[in-house]
Specification:
- By secondary structure, this protein is α+β, with helices and mostly antiparallel strands.
- 14% of the residues lie in helices and 32% in strands.
- It has 3 helices and 9 strands; from the N terminus they run ααβββαββββββ.
- Strands 3-2-1-4-7 form a 5-stranded antiparallel beta sheet. The protein has a two-stranded antiparallel ribbon with strand order 5-6.
- Strand 8 and strand 9 form a beta hairpin.
- The longest helix has 12 residues.
- The mean pLDDT is 92.
């Protein structure tokens, strides 16, 4: 038998990878446009907000309104009604039993003759609103810190 001759040259993996990276350049990261951030506030201003968890025990469309949902929340041992303009994005039945985040210390105000005692927190992106919920089932009335 004669001398063995390799059919293929051995490739230096690290060298080849470095060559490919140099050839391709840095991968471009997809850029997502978001709304501009608001001005800074003092921590004391944030502390004025009372953000709580409420369990949705009832949710229904407000008659004669195309946007409003009426929530009845269990908040500890009390209930609270809050109106929110998210009916275009959520069906009332899909929210029942969910824990939602809301601002508890807004002054009550009447909307379409119904008193709303708070504000459901929602996130908006690309024209869609999503009510903010908790990852785990947590005690209603729990304070967001």
């Amino acid at each position: 038998m004669g001398e063995a001759v390799p059919l293929f040259a051995r490739i230096d993996a690290e060298k080849k990878l470095a060559e490919l990276e140099a050839e391709l350049g840095e991968p471009e990261q997809e850029k997502t446009e978001i709304a501009p951030f608001k001005d800074y506030i003092e921590f004391e201003d944030f502390e004025k907000l009372d953000i709580r968890v409420g369990k949705v025990i009832e949710c229904e469309k407000v008659p004669k309104s195309s946007k409003l949902l009426s929530f009845t929340l269990q908040v500890g041992s009390e209930t609270r009604r809050i109106l929110s303009g998210i009916s275009k994005y959520h069906k009332p039945e899909e929210l029942i039993g969910k824990n939602v985040l809301f601002i508890a210390n807004l002054k009550p105000r009447k909307i379409m003759g119904i008193e709303s005692c708070g504000m459901i927190l929602s996130a908006e992106f690309d024209g869609e609103l999503t009510a903010l919920t908790t990852l785990k089932d947590i005690q209603s009335g729990a304070e967001v810190v």
